[in-house]
Design brief:
By secondary structure, the protein is of the alpha+beta class. The chain has a domain of about 55 residues. The strands form 2 sheets. It has a 3-stranded antiparallel sheet. The chain has a two-stranded antiparallel sheet with strand order 4-5. Strand 4 and strand 5 form a beta hairpin. It is globular and about 45 Å long.
Length: about 160
């Protein structure tokens, strides 16, 4: 997290007020609770977690954008959108047939969800693939990863050269 998201090492102190404000926000609490209940329900499907996860993430982005704290908000008005089962068009995506579950788009982008496969891969600021595992929606610990040479490994397995 520190390197990929440029989160400072002292984030718990530096971002304390924003973290507390996020946890206290009514929308965040409500959506986060719904999100957690999806994780705890072993009968819930992956698809049922998309909307609560997108709402939770958007509530976090909303608090961050109002925080005014340097280094917390990207400065790009953005929001999480449910993309599944649509595919991303263009570039490598056409060959890989990628269909990320959630996409983060600039808020001003007019995403037509009624048109299948209308989103180009270059429009997405971020993508998120949701894979529930052991009551952790986005833990990723045992999610297969494609590695060099086309072999699969998990993040917990050691990759040998």
């Amino acid at each position: 997290m520190k390197y990929a998201l440029r989160v400072p090492h002292d984030r718990k102190t530096k971002w304390k007020s924003v973290i507390e404000a996020t946890k206290a926000a009514h929308e965040f609490k409500s959506y986060h609770e719904e999100c957690c209940s999806c994780c705890e329900d072993s009968t819930s499907s992956e698809v049922s977690s998309y909307e609560p996860l997108a709402k939770t993430a958007n509530a976090v982005l909303d608090v961050l954008s109002r925080s005014g704290l340097d280094g917390v908000d990207s400065g790009i008005p953005q929001s999480y959108n449910i993309n599944s089962p649509r595919k991303l068009q263009g570039g490598v995506s056409n060959k890989a047939n990628l269909s990320p579950d959630l996409v983060v788009l600039h808020e001003e982008y007019e995403y037509d969800t009624t048109k299948p496969n209308s989103l180009h891969w270059a429009n997405a600021l971020h993508v998120l693939e949701v894979k529930p595992h052991d009551i952790a929606m986005c833990d990723g610990e045992d999610i297969p990863r494609l590695v060099l040479g086309g072999e699969h490994a998990t993040s917990s397995s050691r990759i040998q050269p």
